[in-house]
Amino acid sequence: MTIGDVAARAKVSKSAVSFVFNGRSGVGEAARDRILQAAEELGWRPDARARALSRSRAQAFGLVVRREAELLSTDPFFPQFVAGVESGLSEVKYALVLQVVDNEQTERDAYVRFAHEARVDGVFLTDLRIDDERPRELDELGLPCVMVGPTEAGSDASRLIGLDDAAGIRRAVRHLYALGHRRIAHVAGSDRYVHSEARRRAWLDEMDQLGLEPGPVVDADFTGASGARATHELLDLARPPSAIVYANDLMAIAGMSAANDRGVRVPHDLSVVGFDDIPLAPYVVPPLTTVRQDVFEWARVCAKTLVAIVEGTTPEVPALPPVDFIVRGSTGPAKQL
Asked: Which is deepest, 57, 100, 182, 202, by most CB within 10 Å?
């Protein structure tokens, strides 16, 4: 069956059939109904390859992931993000092209191939970096992009789809303060990422707002091993903290294990807060108090926004659920000294 068969059965032109299946106006309601009925009766669907060629599009978007092997294999963010993107794209017949790279040059090469070989119509930029050059480089390549990061990154609000990381960290610090904690430390993520800096800054600002001397901060890299090392470093201090806010759940869970190995009880001796609410968080002992982001819905909104940018329509104003603070058993009252 061809588009001509559908047009003949519906008694319309082939261009009218094309207009209907490409979502364009200019076809009356009665004719549109006849076209859809004819297509259903004949079992015809537009050929995706021909459709892409006619629209000069690849009907695909790219996602290049550059992360350390340990973090990529254990961090649930990307599986959730990919699932949300796929959900959003499946509704509009776009595909996702995923590429995993191991360094800056191979990442840059991937974007160049995407552009020169016309493999994708746009890309998702994740793990936004301080002084990130990728948006400018993508503009030079002619590749539209959506930037995925915290709202604090927002120098280019028209392309940034973000959640308020800072709000979650501020709530964590206030929660610990209400429990009587005054020595509240922070285990930060890699200092090259915007979301690491946003979470560190929120911790520092909230400590200042509460009139507290900023507790010690240790830089880590979001992996469990670095979280354990940072925890040992903090507990070795002459005046160790009574609570620690970690930049992600993996480091927090590893930190609880490190504390337990030293005979430091959570939450009796040390309160712990994570960030992400990974699927394991409710099942560790004790269950982890953490900040929850709806990564799946975040990714769906990113997908719809990139489709709108590529197709030249006005993107909807993002309506993302706010971050939520989940209180579980890893936080408790500060010990009375």
From this structure: 202
Q: Is the peptide bond before 287 cis (omega within 30 degrees of 0)?
A: no
Q: State the helix-helix crossing angle for 77-90 and 295-311, rounded to 10 degrees.
A: 40
Q: What's the confidence (pLDDT) of residue 232?
A: 98
90 phi and psi angles, rounded to 5 deg: -60, -25
> Which pair of structure tokens corresponds to residue 154?
């927002």
Query: What element of type H or E holds 101?
Result: strand 95-101
Ramachandran area for residue 320 (φ above 0: left; ψ -120 to 50: alpha; else beta): beta
Dump pLDDT digits (tens) for 178-192: 999 999 999 999 989
Q: What is the DSSP string of 197-257?
A: HHHHHHHHHHHHHTTPPP--EEE--SSHHHHHHHHHHHHTSSS--SEEEESSHHHHHHHHH
What is the full DSSP assignment across 116-150?
Answer: HTT--SEEEE-S-BTT--HHHHHHHHT--EEEES-
Which pLDDT does position 159 carry in this prediction? 83
Cα separations (Å) of 83 from 30, 186, 260, 322? 38, 31, 35, 20
Q: How far apart are alpha carbons 89 and 302 in whole angstroms?
A: 10
Q: What mean pLDDT is predicted for residues 25-50?
A: 80
Rg of the chain (C-alpha set): 25
Q: Tell me the two tokens of residue 65.
A: 């992931």
Q: Which three-class secondary structure state does DSSP give residue 273?
A: strand
d(CA 331, CA 268): 8
How many Å separate Cα 261 from the centre of its chain? Answer: 33
